[in-house]
Design goal:
The chain has about 160 residues and is an alpha/beta fold. The chain is built from 6 helices and 8 strands. The protein has a 6-stranded mixed β-sheet, with helices on both faces. The protein has a two-stranded antiparallel sheet with strand order 6-7. It is globular.
Length: about 160
Amino acid sequence: MKRIAVFAHYSKNNKIEDYVVFYLESLKKVADFTVFVSDSNIDEDEISKISPFTDKIIAKPHGEYDFGSYKRGYLYLKEAGILAPKNPEISELIFANDSCYAPLFPFDTMFSTMDTKEVDFWGNTQNYTEEIIGKKGFEHIQSYFLVFRQNVFNSKAFDD
């Protein structure tokens, strides 16, 4: 199973903290290609910390939070032909961000377990909110770690 990751980052101090380096190093063990997208200006000294664990680095303020970074990474992957439609080599697209310390345990076990599941997408944490946007009992998967299977990331709805 081949996986591609888009990792969203933000630092008001334009720094890449040690926990982010650890997260990317761990993610590299399960992802075959990683795009690091920062909503910050990151200098070369900081970038050198993550270069061994990333394949593409985009560091430019955009003000669109994590989903803006996810979007930029996804568009890069499409424009570079890495996420070519129906590319059988790519089975999962990971969206992860630096809003948590991870992993607490190696990613291998989680991915091995989820490889056996017949699902279109999955995430680390399901959340239940009492009330949001006028709806009661709203359930959702937290956006800090999402995994999409090929039928999702190749769909028109996802692309739109």
